[in-house]
Design goal:
The protein is an all-alpha fold. 75% of the residues lie in helices and 0% in strands. It is built from nine helices and no strands. The protein is elongated. 28% of the residues are buried.
Length: 264
């Protein structure tokens, strides 16, 4: 084997290693991404789809330093790539989590918490309004071309975060803190109309209990909270759609900002 063949073989070997690391990052993304992260999706589909995306993005990977075929050298890289993929997928799903959390707050305050049902896609017991908000968010995600936005942000991460860099020093915690605060604010903003209306209804019942102590206000409060909750849910759903749509429009910029905060 001459020097030219050895160099070509070495280059092919490096490309295989880079493709493997990129595959790990894509697989981490698909494990946490909206819809594709559901446990009801067959694992073989996730693995195959991750391989297709990795092969498509491999030519766009910028030049990387040579990799060593050694467990102690590759293990940190595999862990880092899995973390990057999971992180991007989690950020992309944050709006979905916020909507589901807001629905859970409404369910607890309204009394729908007892109507739990097993959801095999989530492997748990989500609430009724939480699932309604989650499905509405997923429809908006697809309607606003969310998958393309997510793949665009992921492709940008390939350019910003080298595959061969084993460490991810957090350059600034400000974007991460701002993102957590934004997700929390979104959840409470979605649930605020229903919770505020129910609070006013309970306050009115408390005044009624002082003026008419012979009435069983405690039992009446259950029906009032359900009626007020359902009524405000109908009125407040358009507000939820507006808030979620605005959050999804900002998803690309926020994801890229968080990715840049991880750039070494």
């Amino acid at each position: 084997m001459n020097a030219l063949d050895a160099a070509a073989l070495q280059n092919m070997f490096q490309q295989v290693l880079l493709g493997g690391l990129l595959f790990v990052r894509v697989l981490g993304l698909l494990l946490m991404a909206p819809v594709l992260g559901f446990t009801g999706i067959p694992p073989i589909f996730k693995v195959s789809f991750a391989a297709m995306i990795a092969i498509a993005l491999l030519p766009t990977v910028p030049p990387q330093p040579p990799l060593e075929l050694h467990p102690f050298a590759l293990a940190p890289l595999v862990l880092k790539e899995s973390f990057v993929g999971l992180f991007i997928g989690f950020v992309a799903s944050s709006v979905l989590y916020a909507a589901r959390f807001a629905g859970g707050l409404i369910d607890v305050n309204t009394g729908f918490q007892t109507a739990l049902f097993f959801e095999p896609n989530l492997g748990g017991f989500p609430t009724l309004v939480g699932e309604f908000f989650a499905f509405a968010t997923m429809m908006l995600f697809f309607g606003l071309d969310g998958p393309r936005v997510l793949l665009t942000a992921f492709a940008e991460s390939v350019q910003l975060i080298p595959l061969t860099s084993p460490l991810l020093p957090l350059e600034s915690e400000v974007p991460l803190v701002a993102w957590v605060g934004g997700v929390t604010t979104l959840a409470f903003s979605i649930a605020a109309p229903v919770l505020a209306a129910q609070f006013l209804a309970i306050w009115a019942l408390a005044l009624l209990a002082r003026t008419a102590p012979q009435m069983n206000i405690f039992m009446l409060s259950f029906s009032v909270k359900v009626i007020v909750g359902l009524g405000m849910l109908v009125v407040g759903t358009p507000l939820m759609v507006i808030l979620v749509r605005a959050a999804l429009h900002k998803l690309t910029a926020e994801t890229l900002l968080l990715i840049r905060s991880l750039v070494p």
